[in-house]
Design goal:
The complex is a heterodimer of chains A (about 180) and B (about 160). With about 180 residues, chain A is mainly α. Chain A contains 8 helices and no strands. In chain A, helix 7 packs antiparallel against helix 8. Residues about 75-80 and about 85-110 of chain A have low confidence and may be disordered. With about 160 residues, chain B is mostly helical. Chain B contains 6 helices and no strands. In chain B, helix 5 packs antiparallel against helix 6. The chains are: A mainly alpha (about 180), B mainly alpha (about 160). At the A-B interface, helix 1, helix 2, helix 3, helix 6 and helix 7 of A face helix 1, helix 2, helix 3, helix 4 and helix 5 of B.
Chain lengths: ~180, ~160
């Protein structure tokens, strides 16, 4: 498909998500928070309906072979970086790659990530949840609140965008050993 | 029209169906499970722009080398138009800018590190990714801790 058309479609998708999120006040963090605080199940129901829909549709689509992107690879593509960060030799990497390709039908680097990254994922997500709760919502909710005119979220988004540059200028190399 | 309110579970079903079918039928892959994420797509957008402007070589996902990731502006514009349309736009000035800046900063750094904002964590768990399920468990625990901090009497400004 034409790539400009694809970019426009992604933009359109996010417009629709913005519309739906604004109308439903959906937030993935506030759902859990509200349930713990006041036993309000409505937003939590949104989270679980999202999870269940994704689960059923992916089960169906993987079975029908619609999803050709393979298994989630955590957004990684850079093979040199993967080799550098893992302790595996290139031979073993190739072996693993082929092994996974034949047994699980994709997931090129899914076997590479270490046990250490499991802990990093758990504690990272824990910290993410804590900070998001204190900040008042998940990133999508902050986008919507900014669009509604709440200027707190403007500073949130400023920090959001500045952090990318900061991460790749300063934290990129020291964080490589976490994977 | 003025009071139209969508139930959150409808959002869940509609968004889930859209994300999965966007990957299946629009071809928004590789990587898998990448049709919507606010930290990863913002990272890709910023890195694409800085690579273009300053000639740096910051990493982007494979999809972002072909498609410009306009997700975050899209969500903002969509929500802005909707809130104007339904008369919900109301400017509220910031009370604690530094705290919110720091909050967004931290969330983005962790999001890049563990590959996902809360949306993509839930999405990856739904896809059956083991790391996604671990991250979802961590998210639940983290929100529980955050709620305890909110409830506690000694909390500061947050």
């Amino acid at each position: 498909m034409n790539l400009i058309v694809m970019a426009l479609l992604l933009f359109l998708l996010s417009l629709v998500i913005g519309f739906l999120a604004q109308r439903s006040r959906m937030c993935f963090v506030a759902g859990i928070r509200d349930y713990i605080l006041v036993r309000d199940k409505e937003l939590l129901l949104g989270l679980f309906s999202f999870l269940v829909t994704i689960f059923f549709l992916t089960s169906l689509f993987y079975a029908l072979n619609f999803l050709k992107g393979g298994f989630p690879q955590l957004g990684e593509i850079d093979i040199e970086r993967v080799i550098k960060r893992s302790n595996l030799s290139l031979y073993r990497l190739r072996y693993l790659d082929g092994f996974l390709e034949t047994t699980q039908g994709g997931g090129r680097f899914s076997g590479i990530l270490t046990n250490r990254f499991m802990y990093v994922t758990f504690f990272g997500a824990l910290f993410l949840g804590t900070v998001s709760t204190l900040g008042g919502g998940c990133p999508m909710r902050q986008h919507v609140l900014f669009a509604q005119g709440r200027m707190d979220s403007l500073y949130y988004l400023l920090g959001f965008y500045c952090a990318v540059v900061f991460y790749y200028l300063v934290l990129y190399k020291p964080f490589l050993r976490l994977y | 029209m003025r009071r139209m309110y969508i139930k959150p579970w409808i959002f869940g079903v509609a968004a889930g169906a859209m994300f999965v079918s966007a990957e299946a039928f629009l071809g928004l892959y590789p990587p898998a499970c990448y049709s919507f994420c606010l930290t990863c797509h913002v990272r890709d957008l910023v890195n694409t722009v800085t690579n273009l402007l300053f000639g740096t070589r910051f990493e982007t996902a494979y999809l972002a080398q072909k498609v410009l990731m306009l997700t975050s502006p899209g969500v903002v514009i969509g929500a802005f138009v909707t809130s104007r349309l339904f008369g919900e736009y109301r400017r509220v000035d910031s009370s604690r800018p530094a705290l919110f800046f720091l909050s967004g900063f931290t969330v983005m750094i962790i999001g890049i590190l563990i590959f996902g904002c809360p949306i993509r964590i839930v999405m990856r768990a739904g896809y059956g990714d083991l790391y996604g399920i671990v991250a979802l468990a961590g998210l639940f625990a983290g929100v529980y801790i955050g709620t305890l901090i909110i409830k506690s009497p000694w909390r500061g400004t947050a």
